[in-house]
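Hi there, hope your week has been kind to you so far. It would help a lot if you went through both lines with me. No rush at all, and the record is pasted right below:

***
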Amino acid sequence: MKITNQKKIKTLQNKTEVLKSKNASLENDYDTLKKKLNRDRINSGIVENS
């Protein structure tokens, strides 16, 4: 039983690392898209007051 639990823990740790990586990638994509949107707004003359 102990070995089974250790394997489950390791599997969950691996899944957590994968999710952290995916989250970081999504945050990067979001930042990139936000910057592109701001550039597009500026280039089209739409400027947001913030």
Summary: The radius of gyration is 20 Å. The first helix runs from residue 2 to 43. The chain has a mean pLDDT of 92. The chain is about 85% helix and 0% strand.
